[in-house]
Design brief:
Layout lengths: L7 H14 L3 H11 L2 H6 L9 H7 L7 H13 L3 E5 L6 E5 L1 H4 L11 H7 L2 H4 L7 H4 L5 H6 L3 H6 L2 H25 L8 E5 L5 H9 L5 E6 L1 H4 L8 E5 L11 E5 L7 H14 L5 E9 L7 H17 L6 E2 H10 L4 E7 L3 E7 L1
Parallel strand pairs: 3-4, 3-6, 4-5, 6-7, 7-8
Antiparallel strand pairs: 1-2, 7-10, 9-10
Helix pairs in contact: 2-5, 2-7, 4-5, 7-12, 12-13
């Protein structure tokens, strides 16, 4: 390949590829600051005053730690907007504070943060799968996670109380802020009296919906028997164990969050047909999913969605996928839902409403 290695475009190409080749430094540095509880030390109860690396180490109870190495990590993450860097007038000292992005790692009054999600994504079992992403192309019948660990992800999680607990904390850290935004921006639960939450885990989302919409008199939290066996008592909510591929409890509306994105088209159609059977005429299936844009660009939103798609392919299902809005509409038609609308909530997730 003939190329002018001194041209500006060529030099930029080499620089960009160098960045991409070393990109693993970013998530692993993020994982490191979560493990070290750096955000909590920097937050200082809300003052968020700029701190040196040595002061942060004292704040996390690690005064013997290496401030130089911590500063190297902080500098990298500052370049990605997680921290703000404050340089002294003579340039001899660097101090750091949390940006809005960094604040998502601070544990809030409900004991939630994005930190658990970061840790969940970097557990040893998941990390073993990433060098095998190419295997999803070579042999799409077996997930890279399975090739690395000998069994599917959810089965693997189920054998470890630690992984299961971290998964629940990670999902709560995502779910609660999203549900608050959704309940402020979506009116589709009005008129619903009996609501079924498929894959509802402990019933937290269902409880939030019922508090916001008191017209929902009866809630059914539907999940695997081993999951609902540990669900707490919630007024107005019945916990039901079962298999969504066999049948789904009846309701005026069915709610699902982050379910369809991890299954194949055929499996999604089977789930949605069972929802259709469980709904009355004009009943609604309300799902929350990441929806891919039609065009590929370099925006943070598009990259986050496409990264999530590769995560599904690598960890959960090689042919599970994030989909475009039109693909979801077609799935709805195949399952018997003639009416469809979408409502964007925030930057990442979309509410998809299928009406019978």
């Amino acid at each position: 390949m003939a190329a002018n290695e001194t041209s500006e475009s060529r030099k930029w190409a080499w620089l960009k590829m160098y960045e991409l080749a070393n990109m693993i430094s970013v998530p692993m540095s993020l994982n490191a600051v979560v493990r070290l509880n750096v955000a909590h030390a920097m937050w200082q109860g809300g003052s968020n005053a700029p701190l040196s690396a040595a002061e942060i180490l004292s704040g996390i109870g690690l005064p013997s730690g290496d401030p130089d190495n911590l500063q190297r990590i902080l500098r990298l993450l500052a370049s990605y907007g997680v921290f703000s860097e404050h340089l002294s007038d003579d340039g001899s000292e660097r101090r750091y504070s949390l940006t809005e992005i960094g604040k998502t790692l601070v544990t809030d009054e409900e004991n939630l943060s994005f930190g658990a999600y970061v840790l969940q994504h970097h557990q040893d079992a998941l990390m073993r799968a990433w060098p095998l992403v190419h295997e999803a192309v070579v042999d799409p019948t077996i997930e890279p996670f399975v090739k690395a660990n000998g069994e599917p992800a959810y089965r693997h999680y189920g054998k470890s109380d630690e992984m299961n607990a971290l998964m629940k904390r990670a999902m709560s850290g995502l779910s609660v802020p999203f549900m608050k935004a959704m309940l402020d921006g979506y009116d589709g639960f009005e008129g619903v009296e009996r609501l079924v939450d498929v894959g509802g885990s402990a019933g937290d989302c269902l409880s939030m919906i019922m508090k916001k919409h008191p017209g929902v008199k009866e809630g059914v939290n539907f999940d695997l028997p081993e999951v609902v066996a540990h669900a707490p008592d919630i007024p107005g909510v019945t916990h039901v164990g079962g298999d969504m591929f066999k049948s789904i409890p009846a309701g005026d509306a069915i709610f699902m969050k982050w379910i369809l994105a991890t299954w194949t088209d055929e499996e999604c159609e089977a789930i949605m047909k069972n929802c259709h059977k469980a709904l009355p005429e004009r009943g609604k299936l309300i799902t929350v999913e990441p929806v891919l844009p039609n065009l590929t660009d370099d925006s943070h939103r598009t990259r986050a969605l496409l990264e999530g798609d590769i995560f599904v392919m690598t960890i959960y299902r090689t042919k599970g996928r994030h989909r475009r809005e039109e693909e979801y509409r077609q799935l709805g038609l195949s399952a018997g839902f003639p009416h469809f609308r979408s409502v964007s909530i925030g930057y990442f997730y979309t509410v998809l409403e299928f009406q019978k």
